[in-house]
Amino acid sequence: MSTGRQAEKIERMKELVPLLQKASQAYYQEDREIMSNREYDELYDELVRLEEETQTVLTGSPTVSVGYEAVDELPKETHEAPMLSLDKTKDRETLRAFVGDRPTLLSWKMDGLTIVLTYREGELYKAVTRGNGVIGEVVTNNARVFDNIPLKIPYKGELILRGEAIITYSEFERINRQIEDVDAKYKNPRNLCSGSVRQLNNQITANRHVRFYAFALVKAEQVDFENSNRRKMEWLREQGFEVVEYRMVTEDTLDDAMEYFSGQVQKNDFPSDGLVALYDDIAYGESLGRTAKFPRNAYAFKWADEMAETTLEEIEWSPSRTGLINPVAIFAPVELEGTTVSRASVHNISIMRKLELGLGDRIRVYKANMIIPQIGENLTRSGVKDIPQCCPACGGPARIETVNDVEALYCRNQDCPAKAIKGFTLFVSRDAMNIDGLSEATLEKFIGKGFIHNLGDIFEIGKYKEEIITMEGFGEKSFQNLSESLEKARKTELPRVIYALGIPNIGLANAKVICRKFGYDVEKIRHLTEEELASIDGIGPVIAKSFVEYFAKAGRQEKFDHLLSHLELAEAPKTDTEQNMEGLNFVITGSVEYFANRNQVKAEIEKRGGKVTGSVTSKTSYLINNDTTSNSSKNKKARELGIPVISEEEFMLKWGIQREQ
Predict the structure, then answer these.
(1) Which of 177, 454, 486, 647 gives the lowest tally of CB atoms within 10 Å of its CB?
(2) Is the pTM of this model over 0.85?
(3) What is the set of active-site residues?
(4) What share of residues in the chain are helix, strand, coil (percent, to 5)?
(5) Could you report the per-residue pLDDT of 86-116, keeping only the tens digit for each?
(6) Could you write out the DSSP letters of every residue in 158-218?
């Protein structure tokens, strides 16, 4: 098969695999179809044919099953040859001198985790991390679920290659958006990638969408590469690998390539901290040997950090949920890498002391890896002064502590609102008070500045308008939108408020059941006993205890009064509907016919005293699914547990629900 035809077929396979994955997920996990069975079968057969013709199987192909596996630890393994670092420079002329008149591959230096892959008999045999360059960790089962490496290749000899496992910026942002805990968010894609590749359970790895880009072929016996590293890259591509993007250069064409890479780096969806230059001539490169630390056939170019001089105007102390109070440098705005920056984290007091950082100092700032603002140098070094003695969020005492030889400032007040950021985030969420404009990051800023101490304070945020509109990311329009959202949120229902308090084990469904049982009487509900709550079908002793303990805590009733003073609670819903679903738990899946949507079905159930949950468990009474005979995951689970699967029509007939005309 010609090289070009092989590449075309592999590209088509790269289109088919995610398309079939998406169709399969929609059908089996989401109870919907995005293509007909006939179309799926035709595409599947096409993929099978292409895999046979190319002798290549890509990760995620529905023609193979890669099982998930959890291990107790990652085994260690010594590399056959030490993996050396590259000598590096930030000077283009030094790089030009290295290249000279010899054809050289100039490629991205990706910022991820280096992996060594070994294939035998055409199948992935082993994957090992770089580790310390001598000993790495075996991550073979994790590599099998990378998004884009081939599980089978046409070459049947032993192949050893190196590449970089990375996580894209968009995937990094997606994963961080799902993490409510600000302190638990990942700092950068490289850290996330490193943790993802080294998971003990490879299902977690699969969910992180790690990608692999080959950058070096170490061994492939009896293959003629025509003494060319470029040919090695082309051959790897023919085997189904994605390789790092490269340009062929000499000293005369280096500038054009550098201009391309420097312009492209900020557009890329993957992290890169520089470039790598590798001589194309394999024999010449090997003849150069190596130093004790570096091979002589390659050179790394690191981006020169763009520096800007500015004046330190303020140190902002930002409390976090761990108790750590982080210093953040606020400086006169400067342009860096195409954007305006005015703040940079200083991380801890040890770094402040090392920089001798004081207000009014002239400092030089840059973006680490062209992304994260940092202070590179303090030109005037006036010294650290005025470290706060009180936490800005709660006013409690703050003290300097040394942990692992690093000095940092901590708040030790267990009731500090900064430590309860997750509770504030729940309070403003859609199913609770539904307040737009108060993300977790915004709440953290407001709490850190002392604007919010308890839930009721959120509705008094207007008193800080002048300060808020000058904050980064805010302005008159943002503040106006937030004010309108707060005004709208004041008119609400008691179950939403009870749920929004964040009482352990009290979800919205339980809050509705409690309010309905006690007639939406706020005074009665806030003083309920464990016995009264436990009398409700579905409310056990654990939930009852959580509820009572919440309101019994010192100061909690006063804070609840403060919150209620800002709210207009809707009257208790009037209903003559028979409570004939009391004590029953329903799960609804699939499309509905007689109701406008599944939320209407849920409302009908709750109106009659029932509860709706999202997953089938032993406590589920009925699963409502119009496709009662399907093999969806929820149907299968219900059958395993002996739970009735009923259609929408059966549901309506059983409880005498009339169709709306």
Answers:
(1) 177
(2) no
(3) 109
(4) 35, 25, 40
(5) 888 888 999 999 999 999 999 999 989 999 9
(6) -EEEEEEEE--HHHHHHHHHT---GGGS-SSHHHHHHHHHT-SBHHHHHHTT-EEEEEEEE
